[in-house]
Amino acid sequence: MTAKAAARGAGGAAIRVHDLNYTYPDGTAALEHVSFEIEKGESIALVGPNGAGKSTLLLHLNGILHSTRSRGAVEILGKPIDPKKVHEMPKKIGIVFQDPDDMLFMPLLADDVAFGPINLGIGKDEVKQRVKDSLLRVGLAGYENRVSHHLSGGEKKRAAIATVLSMDPEIIAMDEPTANLDPKSRAELIGILKSLKDEGKTLIIITHDVNAIPELADRVIVLKKTVIADGTTREVFADSEMLVAAGLDVPTIMQFFEVLQAFGYPCDVLPLSIDAAVKNLTQTIENEAGHVHLHIHKHTHTEVGAVRGKYQHHHTAADCPE
Amino acid sequence: MISEIDRYAGISSPIHRWDPRLRLISIFALIFSVILLYNLQLIVIGMIFAIILTCISKIPFSFVLSRMRLVFIFVIPFFVIVPFTVIGDGVEIASFGGITLSYRGIEYVKFAAMIVLKALTAVMLIFPMVGTSRMDITIKALEGLHMPNKLVQMFAFTYRYIFVLDDEFMRMDRSLTSRGFKRQGNLYTLTTISKAIAMLFVKSYERADRVFYAMRSKGYSGTVATLHEFHARRQDWVNTAVVVGFALLLQVAATSGTFSTTRGFL
User: Fold this and answer.
1) Which of A94-108, B18-32, B207-221 shows the highest mean pLDDT?
2) Do A167 and B157 touch (CB under 8 A)?
3) Tell me, what's the pLDDT at A74?
4) What per-residue confidence (pLDDT) applies to B169?
5) Same-domain pairing of A238 and A257
6) What is the mean pLDDT of residues A217-226?
7) Looking at the partner chain, which of A90, A99, A108 has a beta carbon nearest the beta carbon of B217?
8) Exposure of A141 by Cβ count < 10 A (0-12 exposed, 13-18 middle, 19+ buried)?
9) In a mutagenesis test of the B interface, which of A102, A134, A168 is the best target, namely the one with the most B β-carbons within 10 Å?
10) What pLDDT band is residue A11 in, cutting at 50, 70 and 90?
11) Range of the domain at A84
């Protein structure tokens, strides 16, 4: 895969998963022959429909879930996971769970943030410094003595991230960090994730928030019990047929520019984010001497209908006007 | 909604300023001392001391009394039960179906009063003991006292998740109400509520799993340590000497033979 080849130059593999299988205790298959590799410093979006095994996969990455069938299937920073040494994993990989109430289990926020570093055997003064720094990085400076169950949803999500940042792991895996947040909290959270990405942390982000993916991830892995697609963000979003079949979406802006194409807008590379769209429009208008030329001819409606139909999850004949 | 015993932890009083570790130990010793008494006069003295401590702590009496009401309802039946359950000789007043009431039984109303007063004193002392600092600090004080770590963890998790569970049950209750469920005194209400409680157990079990996963992900391997700093100053030791001294004094008085003892059911 081109993305992998490009990233391989950056350094060794951060995560290597080879033929990982997992069956729930009730006999349902959760993961089947999952294989992928993530290089150091890469930022990955892990997408897939509900119940596709994304969270289950995450719990395998630090050995919390394991079975005889998964032995040796997951390597972190070049070493296979030893299920007996799960408590040593947070040095390498930190996991942010979906429900922050599961992660904030101590009486005070400072205790929660200090929990990981203390377990790693870090000295008292260093732990205090890390608590302060981690809270500052997620925008919760001065929240040390707050009681977690009194925080708002957005604050809880950020606090959960701080409890992982304080362990300073090389890899951070997050389960739907932007879910259930109001637009402002969502924007703040995306800002935090971006800064982590810029710092060179290896990120795995499970998300349904397709509009945030272009900003956050270089590469997208689509999981539905097994890896059904793996490539750069653009490559994966280009395969609309596969995405729709898996019950997923592409960014709204990308769909919109595809509709514009039907109206005659000249565009070879569809923009995935608002930023890219602004750039694209500016360039096109400059190239066409100050104008954008759109038109309607006799095939336009058919073409628009075809574009819209492509992304329809339950399309009927009525949705695709002739 | 479960309201919190540490609601008045934010106010300032000599009890609030007392090192939580010493406060816990001292008042705990006092509770034990009162419970071991078998003389009504000494118990009343103990109760007066408890009332004084609660006054010093500035926790409003209305708050304390509202909490003690439940305990009161629980212990008040002893006044009725004890007179009927005294074994031994005595002049019978009445007998019906194997239950006898004797003059000796009536004398034992005093014993019932002791049970009730001891229970109320013990519960009242809980307020200056744990109501004067935030629960998290109390938990850290227990850790500072080298209480077994597993017990400290159980305390901490109970305190942290009781509110989450309460919220969860409230959400279920609201969702029942919003679909037309009304609590009535019939079997349907009982089965519905018991199903909701059963669901709460299942949900708690699953949450416990997820919390444990989260703890493991953060390097948990059996013990929990927190950052805490307590410094006992001279005033803290003075307080301790007063309260523990009083607890010892009660016991010395009880064993000196000056006060008669009434032990139960003999």
Assistant:
1) B18-32
2) no
3) 93
4) 86
5) no
6) 94
7) A90
8) exposed
9) A102
10) low
11) 2-245
